[in-house]
Each structure stands twice: as C-alpha cells, then as structure tokens.
Amino acid sequence: MLSVSHLACVRGDRRLFSGLAFSLEAGGRLHVGGENGAGKTSLLRILCGLAPAEAGEIRWHGEPIHELGDEYRQAVLYLGHHNALKEELTALENLRIAAALAGVRLGEDEGVDLLRRAGLLGREDLPVRVLSQGQKRRVALARLLWSKAPLWILDEPFVALDVAAVGWLAGVIGAHVAGGGMAVLTSHQEVDIPGGTAQTLRIAA
User: How far is CA 108 from CA 10, 111, 143, 179, in A?
Assistant: First the structure.
C-alpha cells in the first residue's frame, strides 16, 4: 500500500500545495488533476523519490520510502513528460536498454513482440529520431509491457497518442490494476480506464 500524509511542496518562493493525503491499495488507481502549474508533476516526482517534499511523509507498505531506498525504487515504474529515449538508437534498442537498466532481461524476439503490441510493427529497427511524436510515445510506453513494478506513476501518459493508442494504453493500465497493481497518473484527457478502484485527487492552483 502507498500512503501519503500532510504532504507539502515548495518550488522557489511558491508553495504549490500542502496537506495532501491519500492512500492507494492493490487494485487501485489515482487520477491527479489540476490546472497547469498546480504541482501535478512535482507531486509525481516526490512520490517517486526524485524530488524532496517540503513536509509530510510517504510510506510504502508502512515504511517511509526514504528508508527503503532501492527496495522502493524497484517497486516503481515512472514515466514522465519526456520519453527518455536515445534518438540515434532504434526503438528495439531503446526498449531493451531500458529493460536492462531496470534489471529485466528482454530478448530481441520478446522486444519485437512488445513493440508490435504497442502498435510499432515494422518500425522496430528504425532510429527513434525518424519516428513521429506519437510513435516515440509508444516506444516509451512499451516499457509498461515488461514492467514487473507494482506501482506505476505516469505523467500525462496519453499525450501525443491517437484514439487507437489511447484505447490500447487504457487497457494496459486497466489490466495492471485489475491484476493487483497500482497506478497514479495525470491526464488532461477524460479516458475510460477499465478495472480497479478509481480515486481522484485535484490540486488547487
């Protein structure tokens, strides 16, 4: 279980939010809403342990995440605004490198199959720099298909996707939470995600 209490965030001389609290159990997803600049991305980065909170506490299965270190980081898959792809490498190379960095062994044939499932059949060996923005996003999102992390933290995962890809991704997230995973995500789009128990947290600007 992920639990957050009395969380506050300050960036520069501006307080983005304070007093945030929620809990998320297996099979649950949390949609974080708010206007641009309200602190949604800052909240997700704090939840990942990538940025410090001004105040408050985050616990994973009852333990503070700062005490868990690598144990918590291995439990989280974070996908941010940027796709974190190397433009000169192919889609397949990017996917396999990301898997290796996460300690997951991903064979070439398996990688090709995952990219096919992500709608990239025939583009596996193309340099990422020649792909469209939507295709690049699909390469990044294909990481979800090999991830064994129980907690997915996704910042605007549906951005740059066409209607078919939005439906595919909604199904992937839904299957993850229906199988006992957890997801925290931001999105300006209204997307029907099947499965799991849904919560909403809105950050006031």
Answer: 44, 5, 14, 26
8 Å CB contact between 44 and 32? yes
CB 153, CB 77: distance < 8 Å = yes
Q: pTM score, two decimals? A: 0.95
pLDDT digits (tens, 9 = 90+) for 22-51: 999 999 999 999 998 899 999 999 999 999
Contacts of 41 (CB under 8 A, 6+ apart): 80, 81, 155, 186
Query: What's the confidence (pLDDT) of residue 190?
Result: 86
Taking a C-beta distance cutoff of 8 angstroms, is the pair 145, 91 a contact?
no
| Higher per-residue confidence, 93 vs 196 | 93
Closest CA to 2 of 32, 19, 26, 33: 26
